[in-house]
Amino acid sequence: MCGIVAAAARREVSEILLEGLRRLEYRGYDSAGMALINEQRGLQIHKRNGKVKELEAAQLQEPFYGSTGIAHTRWATHGKPSQENAHPHTSGQRLALVHNGIIENHAALRKELIDVGYEMASVTDTEVIAHLLHQHLQAGASLMQAMQKTVARLEGAYALAAIDVEYPDTVVGARKGSPLVVGVGIGENFLASDQMALRQVTDRFIYLEEGDLVEITPGAVQVCTLEGESVERPTKRIQEALETSELGDFDHYMMKEIFEQPVALEATLAGATTVQDVEDSFGNAAAGVFDRVTNVQIVACGTSYHAGMVARYWLEEIAGISCEVEVASEFRYRKRVQHEGTLLVAISQSGETADTLAALRNATEGEFIGSLVVANVDNSSLVRECDLVFLTRAGAEIGVASTKAFTTQLVAMLMLTLALGRRRNMAEARQLEIIQALQDLPHYVRQTLELNSAIQTLSEAFIPKRHALFLGRGIQYPIAMEGALKLKEISYIHAEAYPAGELKHGPLALVDDDMPVVAVAPNDELLEKLKSNLEEVRSRGGELFVFADREAGFATEDRVTVLPMPHCPEVLKPIVYTVALQLLSYHVALQKGTDVDKPRNLAKSVTVE
Ligand code: F6R
Is the minimum distance from the CB of 127 to ligand 1 under 6 angstroms? Predict the structure, then answer.
């Protein structure tokens, strides 16, 4: 979603803010803006429609400088992407404010402010916050008091940062339902919606809690509650090496991240050579919770939801434990009947997805025996709020289309299957077999990556197409769904996935010689049935692209292109086939000339509902 960076320093900060925005741009890229306070020239603002490079160009053309400032990259929610709707928003030519989130009562506040004489320069929900802040400052409140009184009026989600010319060395911020961290420097302090924006200037962070307000100056950080009570929040030093945001030899982050998968999988599996190691990866408290689990309820969105769907097959088939999976945006609003002994499992790359977080927070007292999150971002909201945490070690994922986060989530869920399965009399030989398969996984993924140029050639057939069907059976059905999601989100080809057995119940009507059909066909017990389904497609003139185990007995022939996949253990197939489908969508998008890393209308980390 949108990104916030702010600084209160004793040195010039415009370049720090711009670098922060570059690092956050993958989260939203409709428009960008920056405001600085300059002792001589007061409040100065640049806003530009489009990407951060437009803002950089504006700054190059008409540079301005200051040591206190805020900046923002936007993903439009209220109001189309435009210069007027870009943040920062101002009021009374004295203050500027940036916002992530959605203010639900903005219409009522807007009316109230117009009635007392405020003029609106944009159609955003954010502008009302700037005017409310102004109103309280004009009434004599300090900047921090004004922020406190302002947020008391807001319904919805927000992370905010604001500056005011009367407080030239101060930035105030607040968070509720949207993340905000303080970067602690020496003689300078910062705010950002994601620590990654600030890793260039510090490795020490304060993670604000829900409802916290904060005031930063170059020499101090003060945090208080909504009621104005001062609170201490610990400062944590980030241990791991700087996340690489360099592209290196790759043209796109998506491709870099696809190729990073063997290493990301190794890192996620590190040290897990026995079932006990596997269990230890879920933390010290895991054993006590896992002992009581009789059901699993998974909640997630998008690609992470597909990881949950795959996990359901594993948990039920391998661990013999019942499992439900639901998209978080449905789960959170539904009246439900929960079985006793249910573990709530949230899967989320960012750990900040609003719907997934709400599903966790809405759980009623006693509804679940505990909560577990599988996340890729340490200290994210879900990580802080769940009882148990499994951190995937995929490293920063910048491409909007999730790739390495997904495959590492699958590994985490297979590890959960092992930890729960051993409590339900899963045979030891089976446990060892899966552990061995997991150890071998990076090797099979490397073999699949070697198919890159074959997949590139195959992808050419998709360039003129407007639609595509993806088919899978059993555990490969969610992989077909993930393949279709990847293709549609980055190449804008309309793609749908079906369990192959559903074909003749409707979708077959769509099949003609213009409809490419992708089949995910590993060599499992459903293969023969899948073959009959594919014959149904062929006999209607459909063109088939079959990703099949090289031992599955498929051969390339007229209107059938077979991509022979590495022969690997059954349990790994969903992960290995995913990699091939990621490459397919990448190459199609590349040849169609879309913005692979920043597809239209999308953003990384969906922190609004
Ligand atoms: C698709 C994609 C999204 C995310 C979804 C959930 O490629 O990346 O569908 O998977 O927005 O995000 P997280 O995993 O951060 O909760």
Answer: no
Judge whether 87 and 193 are in contact, CB under 8 Å: no
Among 301, 605, 609, name the best residue to mutate to test ligand 1's pocket (greatest count of ligand atoms within 8 A of Cβ): 301
Residues 13 and 159 in one domain: yes
Domain residue limits at 254: 248-448
Domain co-membership, 281 together with 364: yes
Which of 303, 332, 482 to mutate to test ligand 1, by most ligand atoms within 8 A of the CB atom? 303
- The pLDDT score that the predictor gives to residue 482 is 98
Could you tell me if 216 and 301 lie in one domain?
no
Q: Ligand 1 center to residue 605 CA distance, Å?
A: 7
Among the residue ranges 72-76, 165-169, 202-206, 310-314, the one predicted with the least confidence is 72-76
Based on the residue annotation, tell me whether 301 is a catalytic residue of this protein. no
Catalytic residue among 51, 176, 404, 604: 604
Judgement on whether residues 414 and 517 belong to the same structural domain of the protein: no
Do residues 88 and 164 share a domain? yes
Averaged pLDDT, 158-169:
97
Q: Report the distance separating Cα 359 and Cα 344, nearest Å.
A: 9
Which residue of the set 2, 301, 386, 568 is catalytic? 2
> What distance in Å separates the CA atoms of residue 547 and residue 579, rounded to the nearest whole number?
11
Does any domain span residue 243? Answer: no
pLDDT higher than threshold 90 for residue 494: yes
Model confidence pLDDT, tens digit, residues 40-64: 889 999 999 988 999 999 999 999 9
The SS3 call for residue 100 is strand
The two three-digit tokens of residue 225, written as one number: 């509650």
Q: What CATH number should be reported for the domain holding residue 556?
A: 3.40.50.10490
Q: Is residue 242 included in any domain, yes or no?
A: no
Sheet holding 3-8, edge to edge: 42-49, 31-38, 68-74, 3-8, 189-192, 181-184, 204-207, 235-237
Q: Which residue's CA is the closest to the ligand 1 atom numbered 5?
A: 302
- Give the tens place of pLDDT for each residue, 31-40: 999 999 988 8
Check residue 240 and give its pLDDT. 55
The C-alpha angle with vertex 79 and arms to 78 and 80, in degrees rounded to 5, equals: 130
604 classed as catalytic: yes
Higher pLDDT, 210 or 132: 132
Same domain for 267 and 367? yes
The rounded distance, in Å, linking the Cα atoms of 536 and 10 is 70
Indicate if ligand 1 lies below 6 Å from the C-beta of 397.
Answer: no
